[in-house]
Amino acid sequence: MKSNSKKKIIDNNMTNEINFNVKLNLDKIKYLYSLPVEELADTKEKQIQRQNILAEYIANGSSTVKINYIKKSNNRFYNSIQYLKGDIRNFILQDCYDYDLKSSTYSVMLYLSKKNKLPYDYIEYFVNNKDMLYEKYELLEINKDYMNSKCNQDNPYQCKVEEINNIINQFNSNKKKLITIYKDLINDNLDDKKNPISSQYCHIYFYFEAKIILETISHLDRDKIMTYMFDGFNSSQEISVDKLNKITKSYGVKWSIKPMPTKFVLGNIDNDLVEKKLNDYVVCKNKKYMTNLYSDFYQKEYKNAYVIADNATKYLKHTIKYCGGCWYVLEDNLQIMQQNI
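Above: the chain sequence. Below: its structure as tokens.
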């Protein structure tokens, strides 16, 4: 039976929005945009989603894009750039390094367990010996996906390896205690979820994950930060792992620098195709924006003319052209709409 409790948003002393000025390679974005959508994703939904994200970057018209991350009720920050698969993101970012927390799921749990005087010996053993354990039990498919999936289940099945069960059981036992200690960080009533304990703990984990990453970024050159990626970030600055480890020493978490592989190689760009696809996209987007403008006017984001103009400009500039002292509208239906504004 679903709970009738209303969704609550609790002030947990963390900002609700963060933003970075990201440098993207427009030529590479246009190249990807000109490819068949099947190259971008396996499913139709993701193909459309990723193609539209690329269209937004092109419509922006600059290699520097201000990217805003909004904190959702689960305490995680989200932006559409995170929905691009890794090799797309790695392809379009300019001269970046990828910095990630090592074993973030288990490292944050280790920190919280120590901080709250909970048992942590098995969890610490895993954090310190993860690679060895994965190699040791490779044939049993004990890997990153397996360990992360088990810690996101309330009652995971026991496997045939006792030392792996000990790690997962200690993790799950501590989860139950932590959701009572940090109940003010749990922003939704999740009684109807399949794994309610794990779902509630995720809000705690996401909070501390973000806290660690944002505190780390605050010690670095913010202008060099390119993207925020949940348990890490991309930066155009080369930073030593030792420096990052010193910043997060109080949390006991460590960092790694990961490669940024991509299968894509910049080739010839079909500019005519890019322009046609982009015009189709911005015309559709602009129609939707203008159609909903009046009904949305009193919503928070449309309370002043500057915000309205700022939102509309990047779409209008692709469909309205000024030449020889005259304005030209490139699509009949858009002109009708414009006359009604």
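The beta strands are 17-23, 64-71, 77-78, 97-101, 225-228, 232-235, 255-258, 320-323, 326-329.
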